[in-house]
């Protein structure tokens, strides 16, 4: 048997991302205060429950994935009053931590006392925890951690952290500084190296590079190109690295999650050693809200979470997160998102690199291609801005739609999903909402898919498209400028429209339609098809791309789009001529798709897989470097 210090008990995080969310660490109506010497003061008499997201031990998952045979809690205590530690747990039916009756008494002492407490999980326990009870003020704790006894040896691990970044210095410089002060000051630092792939070439490697961090200048080839470059760096040093950890740049990291990832990899059972470890995405603004830890591709072509939104300060959600079993359909279509995904280097050697699709879908496609098992665990996570707050029509109407079509035929990604359905749905929705530019983006996605793998393989063509998309995208302005634009439209000014009078209720509201009205709108496309009118009046609607306030936009001439979260907006105007042009193009494209599908399958099948080889990527990056 081998002993492994597996997980530290953490009570604050230097990233400061979980300030005001103590419930991720401990549950109490009392306060825990960090001291200068690294210890923590339990300030008042009472109970402090550590059966939490970061400080409970996921015994159910550890017994499933690893060779762990025994579990221990190490705790060091100092204080001049009596206290006690009781083992707690949660099982499938727990909505709060359960007391086990296994209690260790702590005698008063001004000196530090060490306790190694054996933990004996019940047969149905999902997580183990502990509660400290103090009889008076002034108890201090330090150097607390969970340790495991493991059957067999601890496998060697060298983890390459890979983060592509493009002109997001506020995020990446903060993460670099944070890791330097946490992960790379820990003894585990020798098992990790951080590759920052600088697609914007705005970082100074001389100011950042050290023994643990390397900044690699790279052309702007998107997330997929950044991850590919990082993988190439790892493959060049494959004798040094066993695993990679792929992470987004616009995230807030947790060093303890990375440490636990390294430890977890080192003790996996043989049947789990080729797995992807999929870290959860917690909400950057609502710290305990988990959006996703593994996703799946639906038959309708959507990429969604396998789990509902969970609040990780709730015991019942800690349990559900560890026990929820996906359906068989989900299992066949699972992926791990690359905001936090660890995988063996052997997988990359065998399956190649991502497709050159710039952004969106590279992670889902790679998961299908590699066909791994997926590991998730409470406390392995990162914080990410919620997707609804960062909607981009360029990303969602072009890259997402194009990439899924390309990936499906190039590598066999999600063969039973219908990726034409979301594309057609996007075009129809945008036309109803006078989003003519966005509808055009969707058609350009389809037409670039028609161009075959040679289009993706050409960085000059991709740069040209990228520049055109951002040049043509709708320009959202701040609310004061939006008011100026409103005042220049007599119809709106006459009605006394004031942006500052808007509320979320007004922005999000809709009104019901009769069945007859629904049929009329569906057929005449909001009076743009056959029965054509210029419309009159205006409606205020949300700026995101997925809402369809069909009742409130009926027969309007102007739509005022408002992004209340980012406090920006724009104005759309009904244009029957533009509708006719796009509609004609749409029908032509659909006809081409139906009549040339066999041809498209053939050219993508023949040339698609070449786009994932290291040799291709070396040439692609060299060509792209000359363009930027």
What does this 3D model show about the protein?
By secondary structure, the protein is an alpha+beta fold. The chain contains 20 helices and 29 strands. The strands form six sheets. A seven-stranded mixed beta sheet has the order 13-12-11-14-23-16-24, sandwiched between helices. The radius of gyration is 27 Å and the shape is globular. The relative contact order is 0.10.
Per-chain topology:
Elements: E1 2-8, E2 32-34, E3 40-42, E4 46-49, H1 59-65, E5 68-79, E6 83-91, E7 98-106, E8 109-119, E9 125-134, E10 139-150, E11 159-165, H2 169-181, E12 192-198, H3 205-208, E13 213-217, H4 222-236, E14 243-246, E15 251-252, H5 255-266, E16 276-278, E17 280-283, E18 289-292, E19 295-297, E20 303-305, E21 310-311, H6 315-323, H7 328-332, E22 334-335, E23 341-344, H8 345-351, H9 362-370, E24 374-375, E25 381-384, H10 393-411, H11 420-432, H12 436-450, H13 453-456, H14 459-472, E26 477-478, H15 479-487, H16 490-494, H17 504-508, H18 515-524, E27 538-542, E28 558-563, E29 568-573, H19 576-607, H20 614-625
Parallel strand pairs: 11-12, 11-14, 12-13, 16-24, 17-25, 27-28
Antiparallel strand pairs: 1-10, 2-3, 3-10, 4-9, 5-8, 5-10, 6-7, 6-9, 14-23, 15-25, 16-23, 17-18, 18-21, 19-20, 19-22, 26-29, 28-29
Helix pairs in contact: 4-20, 10-12, 10-19, 11-12, 12-19
């Amino acid at each position: 048997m081998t002993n492994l210090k597996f997980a530290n008990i953490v009570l604050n995080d230097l990233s400061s991302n979980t300030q005001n969310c103590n419930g991720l660490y401990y549950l109490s109506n009392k306060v825990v205060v960090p001291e200068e010497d690294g210890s923590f003061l339990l300030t008042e008499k009472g109970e402090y429950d550590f059966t939490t997201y970061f400080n409970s031990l996921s015994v159910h998952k550890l017994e499933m994935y690893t060779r762990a045979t025994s579990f221990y809690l190490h705790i060091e205590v100092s204080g001049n009053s009596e206290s006690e530690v009781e083992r707690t747990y949660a099982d499938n039916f727990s909505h709060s931590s359960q007391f086990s009756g296994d209690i260790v008494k702590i005698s008063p002492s001004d000196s530090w006392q060490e306790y190694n407490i054996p933990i004996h999980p019940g047969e149905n326990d999902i997580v183990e925890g502990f509660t400290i009870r103090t009889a008076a003020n002034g108890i201090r704790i330090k150097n607390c951690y969970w340790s495991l006894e493991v059957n067999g040896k601890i496998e060697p691990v060298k983890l390459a952290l890979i983060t592509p970044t493009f002109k997001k210095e506020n995020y990446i410089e903060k993460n670099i500084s944070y890791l330097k002060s946490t992960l790379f000051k820990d003894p585990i630092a020798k098992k990790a190296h951080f590759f920052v792939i600088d697609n914007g070439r705005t970082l100074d490697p001389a100011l950042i590079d050290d023994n643990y961090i390397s900044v690699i200048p790279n052309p702007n080839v998107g997330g997929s190109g950044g991850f590919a470059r990082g993988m190439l760096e790892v493959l060049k040093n494959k004798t040094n690295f066993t695993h990679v950890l792929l992470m987004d740049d616009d995230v807030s990291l947790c060093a303890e999650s990375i440490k636990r990832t390294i430890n977890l990899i080192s003790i996996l059972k043989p049947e789990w050693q080729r797995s992807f470890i999929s870290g959860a995405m917690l909400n950057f603004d609502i710290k305990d809200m988990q959006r996703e830890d593994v996703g799946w591709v639906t038959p309708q072509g959507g990429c969604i979470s396998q789990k509902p939104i969970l609040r990780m300060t709730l015991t019942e959600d800690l349990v559900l997160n560890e026990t929820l079993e996906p359906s068989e359909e989900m299992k066949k279509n699972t992926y791990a998102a690359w905001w936090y995904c660890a995988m063996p280097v052997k997988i990359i050697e065998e399956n190649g690199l991502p497709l050159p699709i710039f952004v969106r879908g590279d992670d889902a496609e790679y998961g299908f291609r590699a066909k791994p098992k997926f590991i998730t665990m409470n406390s392995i996570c990162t914080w990410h801005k919620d997707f609804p707050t960062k909607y981009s029509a360029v990303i969602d109407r072009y890259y997402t739609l194009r990439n899924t079509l390309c990936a499906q035929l190039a590598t066999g990604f999600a063969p039973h999903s219908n990726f034409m359905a979301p594309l057609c749905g996007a075009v129809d929705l945008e036309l109803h909402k006078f989003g003519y530019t966005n509808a055009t983006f969707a058609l350009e996605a389809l037409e670039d898919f028609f161009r075959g793998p040679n289009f993706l393989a050409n960085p000059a063509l991709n740069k040209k498209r990228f520049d055109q998309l951002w040049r043509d995208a709708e320009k959202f302005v701040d609310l004061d400028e939006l008011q100026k634009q409103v005042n220049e439209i007599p119809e709106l000014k006459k009605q006394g429209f004031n942006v500052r009078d808007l509320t979320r209720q007004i922005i999000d509201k809709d009104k019901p339609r009769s069945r007859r009205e629904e049929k009329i709108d569906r057929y005449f496309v909001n009076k743009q098809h056959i029965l054509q009118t210029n419309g009159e009046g205006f409606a205020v609607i949300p700026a995101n791309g997925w809402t369809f306030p069909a009742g409130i936009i009926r027969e309007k001439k102007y739509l005022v789009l408002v992004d209340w979260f980012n406090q920006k907006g724009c104005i759309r105007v009904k244009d029957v001529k533009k509708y006719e042009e796009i509609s004609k193009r749409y029908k032509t494209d659909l006809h081409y798709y139906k009549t040339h599908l066999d041809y498209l399958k053939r050219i993508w099948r023949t040339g698609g897989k070449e786009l994932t080889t290291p040799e291709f990527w070396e040439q692609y990056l060299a060509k792209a470097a000359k363009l930027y």
